[in-house]
Amino acid sequence: MHRLIKRLLVVGAHGDDETLGAGGTIAKLTDDGVSVGLCVMTNDDGSRRVNRAEAIKGAAKALGIELVEINALGDSRLDTHGQLELNRVVERIVQDFNPDTVFTTSMADLSVDHQMVSRAVRVACRPNRSDVRELRCFEVRSSTDTGEALGIEPTFRPNCWQPLSEIHMDRKLEAMRAYGNEIELWPQPRSEDGIKILAKYRGSQVATDLAEAFEIVYTLL
Questions:
Q1: Cβ atoms of 8 and 97 closer than 8 Å
Q2: Measured in whole angstroms, how far is the alpha carbon of residue 90 from the centre of its chain?
Q3: What is the pLDDT of residues 148-189, one digit of tens each?
Q4: Is the peptide bond between 154 and the residue preceding it cis, with omega within 30 degrees of 0?
Q5: What CATH number is attached to the domain comprising 48?
Q6: 70 Rama class: left (phi>0) / alpha (psi -120 to 50) / beta
Q7: DSSP string for 126-170
Q8: Of the N and C termini of the chain, which has fewer Cβ atoms inside 10 Å?
């Protein structure tokens, strides 16, 4: 049975997680009339030449995201804040936005920030504590794949694929360009070619041209 998504919340540690992991799917869903909110846990521009908040908002606009919340926790320093603080941030936005579906980063990622955010989302989206009907994890280039290459356990195990049109792939790349120097040169994984190659690979797994892959943590039909 297909479960219709009506309200989607995407929670990421950093601006660009949402675009790299689910940008094409978000673009498709917003085109289909789904209300999408984005919660980014960090806004630390110290090592970047781009205004992070403006980049996040620009990417959200390209993808059709209607609500953006940017928190001011430290990039690559979420462990200094503690898991309980992250849990409370996510619990509040889940309660306020009241999504039926949530996407977030994977526990398989090399990034500790990604792991902590994924854990916070799982706490906030417990079926007995929220109205969330489905929780999915997405993969982030240079974090999920690097974790796999270095033998991090558990590994990302996709069990859900979203086919993408060229239009939605283009929207994903447009959103990624809002992040400026976060786009790398080939053969780096966050290059435009690297992003396209992953979409082609995931598409080939389900006999379609392009796709994004997800790991469903749970779904309630």
A1: no
A2: 14
A3: 999 988 999 999 999 999 999 999 999 999 999 889 999 999
A4: yes
A5: 3.40.50.10320
A6: beta
A7: -TTTS---EEEEE--TTTHHHHHHTT-SSPP---EEEE--HHHHH
A8: N
Number of domains in the chain: 1
Q: Is the pLDDT of residue 2 over 70?
A: no
Buried b or exposed e, range 102-125, using 16+ CB within 10 angstroms: bbbbbbbbbbebbbbbbbbbbbbb
The answer to whether 86 and 124 are in contact (CB under 8 A) is: no
Residue 158: asked if its preceding bond is cis (omega within 30°), the reply is no
Tens-place pLDDT, residues 79-137: 999 999 999 999 999 999 999 999 999 999 999 999 999 999 999 999 988 999 999 99
Residue 2 falls within a domain, yes or no? Answer: no
- Over its C-alpha atoms, the chain yields an Rg (Å, rounded) of 16
pLDDT at 87: 97
Residue 137 maps to a domain: yes
Distance CA 176, CA 10 (A): 16
Task: List the Cα angle 117/25/102 in 5-degree steps.
Answer: 35
Q: Which of 123, 113, 127, 38 is nearest to 84 (CA)?
A: 123
Residue 211 covered by a domain: yes
